[in-house]
Fold this protein.
Amino acid sequence: VDSRTLAIRSALPLPAENTTRWSVDRKLRLVAAWHYGQASIADMRERWRVETEEFIDWLLAFDTGGARSLC
């Protein structure tokens, strides 16, 4: 895990709850929020309307390839 990337993103504001387009930066902010306990998978569904399977895909992609794999 690229912990430096996550630490930097966790210090930034979370995406707006009405976000519909998921850039790499926005995905990283949510991955970091989950990693540091600032948001749960339930929050992903309820606040940001991200399906559980999609968010898990983001987590797996980040774990295997870092930020570049979230394109």
